[in-house]
Design a protein that fits this description.
single chain; about 220 residues; alpha+beta; about 40% strand
């Protein structure tokens, strides 16, 4: 098994709550095969685990407990913070990574957030009252908390049947929602996470938030 699994929390709320836990295997070469990486990601049990193949070049590989991903939002925000690089390289393409004060973020294209289906509700109370829906597809439930200010309440349900019934913070879904609405958002997801987004004139979207290190396993 690879030595040194960093554990981060990504998209922490302003009060320090929330944040989606991310596993990072710094020495990706220690787990060279996709089958081995998939097995380790399932064993660790995080929503996503990142394997660093080349830290200097920002080359990384991302897995949920059940599938490999060509792109994912919160893992790239987290590993960008950890490595301190300006670009990350994944199967979907080159993703710019940036830092602005306490916020770390990435720039990506909304179409990279494949499979994230958004579902609008009439009120925050409706979103908060939802039970976990039946599986089969990725659902991102959301409602305006304050439309004028761009504040959104959201919850994410992966529906993969791999033990992650609800995602605490989902960067790719925030990317898709921002692209659909065509404006920057302040998204509160899960139990206390915050995702900040911005729409760029070229159609790309910035997603960012606070990151911290939880420890090592």
């Amino acid at each position: 098994m690879a030595d040194l699994h960093e554990v981060l929390r990504v998209f922490i709320g302003p009060d320090g709550r929330g944040g989606n836990e991310l596993g990072v295997v710094r020495d990706g070469a220690a787990v060279p095969s996709r089958q081995g990486r998939q097995a380790l990601a399932a064993e660790l049990g995080f929503s996503e685990t990142v394997f660093v193949d080349d830290a200097a070049a920002g080359a990384v590989d991302i897995y949920t407990p059940s599938v490999r991903l060509g792109f994912a939002g919160y893992p790239l925000v987290g590993v960008g913070w950890l490595l301190g690089v300006e670009a990350l390289r994944v199967e979907a393409g080159v993703v710019r990574s940036w830092e602005g004060g306490a916020v770390r973020g990435i720039r990506a294209r909304p179409e990279w957030g494949t499979g994230k289906q958004t579902e609008r509700y009439a009120s925050v109370a409706e979103v908060e009252g939802l039970g976990v829906p039946e599986g089969g597809r990725w659902r991102y439930a959301w409602a305006w908390a304050d439309e004028g200010a761009g504040r959104v309440r959201a919850r994410g349900f992966p529906g993969r049947g791999d033990g992650i019934a609800e995602d605490e913070a989902t960067g790719a879904a925030a990317l898709v929602l921002t692209g659909e609405l065509g404006r920057g958002l302040d998204i509160r997801q899960g139990m206390g996470s915050q995702i900040l987004t911005r729409m760029n004139p070229d159609g790309t979207v910035e997603i960012g938030g606070r990151v911290t290190r939880v420890g090592r396993t």
